[in-house]
TrEMBL record:
The lineage of its organism: Bacteria, Pseudomonadati, Pseudomonadota, Alphaproteobacteria, Hyphomicrobiales. PROSITE patterns: EXTRADIOL_DIOXYGENAS, VOC. Belongs to the extradiol ring-cleavage dioxygenase family. Residues 6-117, 134-247 form the VOC domain. InterPro entries: Glyas_Bleomycin-R_OHBP_Dase, Glyas_Fos-R_dOase_dom, GlyoxalaseI/FosfomycinResist, VOC_core, Xdiol_ring_cleave_dOase_1/2. It comes from the Bacteria. One of its GO terms (molecular function) is dioxygenase activity. Keywords: Aromatic hydrocarbons catabolism, Dioxygenase, Iron, Metal-binding, Oxidoreductase. This is Glyoxalase/Bleomycin resistance protein. Its cofactor is Fe(2+).
Amino acid sequence: MVNVNRIVYAVFQTPNLQGQIDHYTKILGLTLVERDGKVAYLSTSGDHHSLVLREGSEARCEALGFQLPPTADIGEYENQIRAHGLKTERQADPQPSIKDAIVFYDPKGTRIETFVQAVPAGVDFQRCGISPNKLGHVAFNVTDVQGVVGFYRDVLGFKVSDWMGDFFAFMRCGPDHHTVNLVAGRNSKMHHIAFELRDWSHIRDACDWLARDRIPLVWGPVRHGIGHNISIYYRNPDGQIIELFCELDQVNEALGSFEPRPSHQDFPQKGKVWEDIQFAANMWGSGPPDGFLE
Ligand SMILES: [Fe+2]
């Protein structure tokens, strides 16, 4: 069985294409690598694009792009996905940098785009704006948490790193503690998209950079119990929550535990169900604002 091992990009539809491009380039500090009419490709640096913005009628996340290991046979991977009873489509040259992709849908309607090779744009990190290391994870509200967790586990090969109670799952496809988060909600929709910053002082600088543009934080800084990352949250012009984080737990699969950190509670720290919801959400105290998880 071959599984995706890295998130590469997220695709968003937006009714405010230029506003979103301005935000992601001038405030977050991504590079506009390519613009093709009503579609824009933006990169942190490492990948050709970390975000695709497509002009449309509503603000929503419509797809995620995941990379397969370099040795994967994409034809065999398509057969593996079809064996789960899913419809797949093989696409030639679907996006800049990607020559061959297998595309299918998860149970909440997000398009999953998988590929082996993506050619980097070779762009440097931006020297203005926040300039994150990389796209880290995407979180979704889902009406059927157990069902969608099952899909990501059984079809895509993700592992559950931690549960918050029985309503919030943190799932990984590589060493990062979580790449996709699934939280129970009344509707299925993206909850937030998260970018990794370098360290705690980079978080401080990001707060100052946001303040210069009068962009208030929605929550944070916090130290999450689950994942132990330091995080802040704010909203982009489309009202979507952006998380900026550092110090996320790294999973050592050989040890079956997370790399040891002084912020841990268990020694060794392993995946578990967190019952103290407030501590799991923020070890430092304040919980999220009302309605944050909806
Ligand atoms: Fe997050």
